[in-house]
Amino acid sequence: MATRLPEPDRPWMMRTYAGHSTAKRSNELYRGNLAKGQTGLSIAFDLPTQTGYDADHELAKGEVGKVGVPIAHRGDMGFLLHDIPLDVMNTSMTINATAAWLLALYIVVAEEQGVDSKALQGTTQNDILKEYLSRGTYAFPPGPSMRLIADMIAYTVQHVPKWNPINICSYHLQEAGATPVQEIAYAMSNAIAVLDAVRERVDQDLMGRVFARISFFVNAGVRFVEEHAKLRAMSALWDGIGRERYGVEDAKQRRFRYGVQVNSLGLTEAQPENNVQRIVLEALAVTLGRSARARAIQLPAWNEALGLPRPWDQQWSLRIQQVLAYETDVLEYPDIFEGSKVMDGLVAELIEGARAEMAVVEEHGGAVEAVPYMKAALVDSHRERVRRIEEGELVVVGINKYTETEPSPLTADAEGGILVVDPEVEAEQVGDLRGWREARDQQAVDAALAELARVARAEHENIMPPTIAAARAGATTGEWARALRDVFGSYRAPTGVGEAMAAGEDDRLEELRDEVDRVSEALGRRLKILVGKPGLDGHSNGAEQIAVRARDAGMDVVYEGIRLTPSQIAASALQEGVHVVGLSILSGSHRSLIPEVLRALREEGADVPVVVGGIIPEADVAPLREAGVAAVYTPKDFDLNRIIRDIVELVAERNGVAAASA
Amino acid sequence: MAPAAAELGRRLRERDVSAAPAVLNLVERRTPAGREDVAALLHEVSPAVLGGEAPGDVVGVTGPPGAGKSSLLGELVAAWRRAGRTVAVLAVDPTSRRSGGALLGDRARIPSEPGDRGVFIRSTAAGERLGGLAPATRAAAQALAAAFDVVVIETVGVGQSETEVADVADTVVVVVQPGSGDVLQFLKAGIMEIPDVLVVTKADLGVVAQRARRDLLAAVRALGSEAEVVMVSSVAPAQGFDELVAALGRRREQLDLRSRRTHARRRAALADFVAEHGDRGLRALGGRRAAEKWLDEQEPGLDVPALERRLEQRALEAS
C-alpha cells in the first residue's frame, strides 16, 4: 500500500454550535463565523423551541434565548437565515422533539429564497431516544415520537433527498456517563429501532436509500486511542447491520457517516485553560484514522463549564480545527492504523462487548422498550465515574491532582470570561411573538392546525405535509406542539435513579450514614430532601447523582425528574414535608428561576433551606446567596460526599440539632 | 404538642385539605412526644368525635414493580378530580436495607393542574419493614379520610403487602401486568388475599391482556369471590378508567363500612403494639390469634390509640 495519498483529502466540514438571544443576533454571529472560514452551520435552539413552547408559556420563563436561539415561526427562521444561501449551505440543526416543525420552517424559508427543497443539505438531529436517556428535550410519548421520526425519514428520502433526517446520537450517552461499549451498543440499538419503524412506512425497495441517509453524532473523550477504536468498531457494526438486518447490497449505502462534537463532560471549571489541550487531543480521535474519520466536526469552547462561550471563545475552537486540517499532515495519508495489532485488538474487544449489550437491549424488546433499563445503566456508569474521580483512580488534572494554580487571566474580566445573555431578550421575543400572532391570517392558521391534528390521529398519513402547510400559514412552535400534545398525550421519561444500584461498603459513606441517622433521630423522622430541576433544562446527570448519593447516605429522597415549574417544586416541598430542597440548573436560567422557586416556597409557607448546583458563574453566586440560597455548588465541587455532609449540617443547624461531637 | 394536634384534628373535621402536610409531618414523628400527638390527633377524628366513620374512601393500590401502578394512579386521580372529588395519595416506597435511605419517585407521574389544592401526594419510605406499610401510613390514612373524599395507599409488591393494605383500606385494587403469572399463582395458592378489584394494565397489548383477564376471572370465581376484573390502558387515549372508578364504587357500596373500619382499627392497634413491644409483648397476649380474638370483643368505635392502650394494659396484667 502507498505510504501517501496521491492528493491530500478534503478537510471535514467545520462547524460551531451556536445561537443565542434572538434570530437577528444569531444571524450576525453566523455570518461572522462563516467569514472566519467555518464551512457549515450548526444551529443551537433555545429550550422552549426544543421542547415545543412559545416564549410566553409559563415553562419558558427564564429560558428564552439562553442556550440557543428562539424560533417561533417562519418570520424568525427568515431572520435567522438572512443572506445565507440555502442552496449551498450545509446546516445542522440540533432539534429533536420538534424536528419536523423546524425542518418545515427551513423548507418554507428556502422557498421564500427561491430554493427548491431538493437542493437543501443538512441534518436534523431528531434522535428522541437519547432525549429520554440523557438530554431531556422530549415532548411526546415514545410511540408517537418514533412515528414522527419515521414520517420525516419517509418524507425527506423523496422530497429533500440530500437531507440527513436523523443523526443517531451516541454523543449524549457519553455525556451521561456511558462507557465506550454502552455508547456503541445503545446507539446501534437506537438506530435499529428507528429503521424498524421506518420499514413499516416506506416501500421495501427504498430501504437502501433510507439506510444511507442515517448518520451518527458521536462523542470523543480524552482517551483518544480507545475513542478512535470505538469509531472503527461502530463502522464495522453498522456495515453488518445494513447487510444482515436490512439486506442493503450497496456497500456505499452501508458506510458509517458521522459528525462529532468532542467531549464536554471532561471539561473542567477549575484551570479552564487545560480544556484547550483536552479538545485538541479529542479532535485527534476523530481525524487520525482515515477509514473512520468524521464528516463534520464542531469543537466545544474552553469555557463551557463556566457558562456560555463568547464569539472569541468559539473562534479559538474553530482555529483548532483549521490548524489540524491545514497545518498538520493528517489529511495526507491512507489509514495509518491499518494493520495495527493493538488497534485491531481494541476494535474486536469493543465489538464483542457491544454485541453482548445489544443482545440485552434486544431481550428487553428493543431500544424503545429498553429505555428504563438503559437509563438505569447509564446512571450506574456515571456514578462509577464520579466515584473513581472522588477516589483519585481516574486522574483529572486540576481537579483531583495538580490543583495548585496561578490566577487565570482568561477569567479576569467582569463577567468571568463568558457571554451573558441580555435579560431583556425574553420580553423582546414575547413582544415580537404577540405582534406576529396579531398580524397573521388567524383563520388560515386555525385551519392548518386542525388539519395537522387530523393527520396526527390518522396513523397512516405522513405528518410532514400538514406541518409544512402550518409553517406557511404562520403557526408558531408552541401551537404546532400543542396540537400534537393534544392528540399524542404528554410524557415523563424514567429518571433511572429508582433502579440505580445501592452503594457497596464504603468507610466515608458509613460515617455519613451515622450522621444522617443521628440527625434523623433528633428530628423525629428520617431526613428528607427534594431534588428538583426547575425550568426546561434536561441535563439531569448532576441531579441524578446527588439523588442517588443522598439515598446511599441514608436520606429519604424525593426526585421527580426534569422540567418542573417553581410552583410545582414548592408544592412538592410542602406536601412531602422535606427538610431541604436541592435545585440543579445548567441552562443559565438560574438568575430568574431560583428566585422564583424561593418566592413560591415562601408563598406555600414551606420554610426550608435551598441549595443550588449547576453551571453557576462566580459572579452570580453572591446574588443567589443574597436572595436566600444557603449554598451554591459548581462543577469544581466534585466530592459528592462533602456536598451531602454540608446538607446534613445545614438541616441540623436549621432545626436546632446540635453538631456532631468530634 | 397536643393543642397543635387538636387544632389539626379540627381542621380535618372541617374537611380542610390544606391541613394534610402538617398532619403527615405529625404522624411521621416517631418520638415518644410524637406518639402522644398522634394519639391526640386520631382521637379528634375518631368515630366517637366524628359521630360516625370518616367519610372518605380509603383505597389500597398494590402490585408488583413494573405493573404500571403509577400510570394507573395518574389516570385514576384525574378521573376522580373530573368528578370533583378531593384525593390524597400516600405512596409507600421500599427502603434500602444497607443505607436506610430511599428514593421516592413517581409523584410527578400523577398529573395535577398547577395550583390544584384538591390533590395531595406524600411519598413515604417503608422504613425498616421492607415491602410493608410505613408505620405512619395507617395513622395518616385514618386521619386524612376525615378531610379527603378519597385516600389512596399505594404500595409495591405482591404476596404479603396487599394483606397489610387490606387491613387498612376499605377496598383493595391489585394491579396485574399481562403476561406475568405472579398474581395468578399467588391467588391460587392462597398466598395473597383476594382483592376487591383486579386491574389488568396495558390493555393495548390485546390478546395477552385478554388472556390475563380471563385467567384471573376464572381463578377468583373458582375461589368463590365476587371480585371484579377490569382492563385499562394508560396509552393515550386512556381507556377503562371510568369502568374502574365504577367498579370501586360498587364494591364500596356493598361494603359494611363500620365493620371494615373497626377491623382496620383493631389491626392497626395490634401492628402498633407489636412494633412497640415486639414478640415478647405478643406472647404476653397469648399470641397473635388470641390477641385478634380479644380485640374483636372490644367496642367497635374505639380509636387506635385507645385500643393500643388496652392491649398494653392486658399485656401488663398477664406478665
Keywords:
heterodimer, A: 662 residues, alpha/beta, 5-stranded parallel sheet, 15 strands, globular, B: 319 residues, 7-stranded parallel sheet, 8 strands, 49% helix
Describe this structure in words.
The complex is a heterodimer of chains A (662) and B (319). Chain A has 24 helices and 15 strands. Chain A has helices at residues 23-35, 47-51, 74-80, 99-112, 129-135, 142-159, 171-175, 180-199, 207-213, 224-244, 274-285, 311-327, 341-363, 371-390, 424-439, 442-457, 464-473, 477-488, 507-523, 541-552, 566-576, 590-604, 618-627, 640-654; strands at residues 13-15, 17-18, 41-44, 90-94, 121-124, 163-164, 166-169, 214-218, 258-261, 296-298, 528-532, 556-559, 580-585, 610-614, 631-633. By secondary structure, chain B is α/β, with parallel strands linked by helices. Chain B is 49% helix and 14% strand. Chain B has helices at residues 2-13, 20-28, 32-44, 47-50, 69-82, 135-144, 161-166, 182-188, 207-222, 241-254, 257-284, 288-296, 304-318, and strands at residues 57-63, 87-93, 102-104, 119-125, 150-156, 171-176, 197-200, 228-231. In chain B, helix 11 crosses helix 12 (288-296). The longest helix of chain B is centred in the C-terminal third of the chain and has 28 residues, at 257-284. The two termini of chain B are 32 Å apart. Strand 12 of chain A pairs parallel with strand 3 of chain B, so a sheet runs across the interface.
